Structure prediction request, 306 residues.
Amino acid sequence: MESIYKKIIENAYTLTKSRKDKGEVATYIPELAYVDPAMFGVHMTKLDGTNFGLGNNLEKFSIQSIAKVLSLTLAYKILGEKIWQRVDVEPSGTKFDSLLLLETYKGIPRNPFVNSGAIVVCDILITHLKNAKQEFLDFIRELSGLPDLTYSDKIADSEKATGYRNVALCNYIKSYGNIKNEPDEVLDFYFDMCSIELSCKELSHTFSFLANGGRTLKDNKKIISKSMTKRINALMLTCGFYDESGEFAFRVGLPGKSGVGGGIVALYPKNYTIAVWSPKLNPNGNSYKGMKLLEEVTTDSELSIF
Ligand code: GLU
Prediction:
């Protein structure tokens, strides 16, 4: 990796590490509360194959909502443009687990990254795949190059035992006919999907196809078309950070996705992907230090999609 990027990441990491962390670890999924709040890692993967990481960049963490981008990619591959009849492409302006707009829009979630939208995407995968859980896992194994990757039963079970809002969302959407399978089966898959664990290094590698026009870095295999890549990246920019997507675009200026495990992945098309992990979340549910670090990186490099 060019030393210019190394230097920028080193500076951003050092500066952000010394900041007081004003965030809080997510506890509504009990298992997430056990994480060490001091964990802090970053990893950049450039499209020329070079990569560089710092801190706890090799430690696995729960990627939670970040997995929603991968389930959307698989469902979009299968259903093509028809997918937008089931889920919309607008920022919600509400919390990620809100029920509010489902009544207004008659069971059509605002976008695939709020929980309601991701639950509908799981329903689509169950309808169209023989074994959605296994085939989704195979898909992430292929993208990440990790043949042994699997769901975390500990995290999934912890969320299954407490995920009442997601149960409500799924049943409410079902009442409008936009869930075709049994809610129990859909939710079981949704919780498993959110339980995937990856390190910053693995996460930035896994997402590199979205910086690379839809093709894998390793063997240039086409995963999705350039046009589909554009749309998924556009959705990450407009809807990837809960009710703070505008703020992320304003401060960082890259498409990305966060999760309540404290991870964020972002990408600069045709150039790099970057993953950062710091478990304490700001009041909007995004990693406090993660956002700060990424803001430093794009400000210092003077490179963003804008
Ligand atoms: N599994 C989490 C939930 O449904 C995902 C939330 C997130 O990371 O935004 O609440």
In short: The beta strands are 24-25, 41-46, 51-55, 61-62, 197-198, 256-258, 263-268, 272-277, 280-281.
